[in-house]
Amino acid sequence: MWTTLVYFLLVVSCAVSKTEYENVLDERNDFIQRELDMMLGNDITLSDNELKANEIIMDLKCKELDFGFQSPHIFNLSKHFFEYKDAVKESALYKIIQKMPKGAILHAHDTGLLSPDYVLNITYMENLYVCFEEDTMQLLFSDNIPKESCGTKWQLMHDARYSSVDVEEFDAELRKYFTIVIDDPHEIYTDINVVWSRFQQYFITTGSMFSYKPVWEQYFYDTLKAVREDNIMYMEIRSVLPPLYDLNGKVYDSVETAESYKITVDRFVKDYPDFYGAKLIYAPLRMVDASTVKQYIKTAKKIKKKMPDFLAGFDLVGQEDLGVPTKEFLLELVHAKDDLDYFFHAGETNWNGMSSDENMYDAIALGTKRIGHAFALTKHPYLMEEVKRRGIALEVNVLSNTVLKLVGDMRNHPLASFLARDLPVVLSSDDPGVWEADPLSHDFFVTFLGVASRHADLKLLKKLALNSLYYSTVKDKDKVVHEFEIRWTKFIDSLVKDKW
Ligand SMILES: *[C@@H]1O[C@H](CO)[C@@H](O)[C@H](O)[C@H]1NC(C)=O
Ligand SMILES: *[C@@H]1O[C@H](CO)[C@@H](O)[C@H](O)[C@H]1NC(C)=O
Ligand SMILES: [Zn+2]
């Protein structure tokens, strides 16, 4: 009784004796703690070794950030990606992130993953013809002069190259078709449509070269290799599945194209058994009418029937602001929704309340498993709750969004808000080859340093990697996660031991 009273008096007098200043200070600190507890990765507990690794990583991160805070005019990540993409690769933090096991890459388009230098090398292959037109170029493999229309004349790439004045200069000019990186993006890429047009031109120019069956398979094999070298263990790849051709004049349809991917993956996994394979998301162009979508769905079902373990699901691609809204295909998509899993691109836009923004409503109502981009999601409080409730992962591609002009300064990317509220996020890279980024390391680095809070640490990185497996459709998920844990522990040990 006495003790209770004494205790009571003590508590009251303490409270009373607290100054207004202390109360405010307490509350402020409480706010910080509450927000830290809400952040993506908050549920992870770091081991002793991970805590040591965290110190190393946070020391590097804070140094870079604090320097940027003092000298914002030279803070790399507020500039255009083209200006810092090579420089950051030299930073110690980048090298750690490159070595870090990153789980899976879940949002990537098949013909946009490798560098322009890789694509340039393909032009050295035999039987490649070229037709140079005013600002464009057509490429085609053939065993004699192509019959396809050409505004000038078809010639063998080999002849064009070696009859040029300067082969190096010829290749430098050719390389420009295989990248959207330029010296003066602020002047040239004045709005989203300009940069998208250049971006789409890349796919048009390379399309007929890549869809030569031997190149198609080699490109995919080498993509898996690059992905594996970036410390990724599994991939889900989106493809429009174009018809392929060979020199005998045979044309392969979309189902056969999917089969050629399946065969390539199987071959790759045989060569590299530490890689956990790849699945396909059939993602044809959205700039079409409803009856074409109906055809697409038919094709998707055929692939599913033939290769049920290989097809992850269905999506539609293309610039959403200019493309046909998902709503136009709602009937077709509703009919197929029990047969196919959806992984829709949606909300890859700066517009609010327009059709591209509202594609997110359709995607979620159609039961999409994940959303590609969801860049516009912060403007939709109800949808934000809904993706969390339903466990719909957001496939966020920060570099794609900056290069394709949705956001200029990385610090303003809406991902900051997704991370702060612990939405189900997976990081991906969309078409990293086209802007000369690594398969996933650049996106992780920029997110960690330029988008997430200064307080976000190793817990965030680990959670993002784990999420990529958790929200994937990988077979034997538990086994893959277990293998990830082993690699992660190895990575942490080596980081702590070497201090790199
Ligand atoms: C920009 O990146 C380079 C290479 O990592 C680094 O040396 C430099 O300090 C960075 N600048 C800032 C302000 O972070
Ligand atoms: C292109 O080919 C050259 C010569 O075979 C090779 O050294 C280089 O590594 C290749 N580049 C890429 C990006 O594959
Ligand atoms: Zn995409």
TrEMBL record:
Keywords, comma-separated and alphabetical: Hydrolase, Metal-binding, Secreted, Signal
Cofactor(s) needed: Zn(2+)
Pfam family, one: A_deaminase_N
Domain of life: Eukaryota
Keyword S-adenosyl-L-methionine recorded: no
Its EC number(s): 3.5.4.4
Reactions the enzyme catalyzes: adenosine + H2O + H(+) = inosine + NH4(+)
Chief localisation class: secreted
Subcellular location per the Swiss-Prot or TrEMBL entry: Secreted
Signal peptide (UniProt feature, chain positions): 1-21
Domain Adenosine/AMP deaminase N-terminal, residue spans: 17-97
Enzyme class (EC, first level): hydrolase
The keyword Ribosomal protein belongs to this UniProt entry's keyword annotation: no
Domain Adenosine deaminase: start-end pairs: 195-479
Family: Belongs to the metallo-dependent hydrolases superfamily. Adenosine and AMP deaminases family. ADGF subfamily.
Protein name stated in the entry: adenosine deaminase
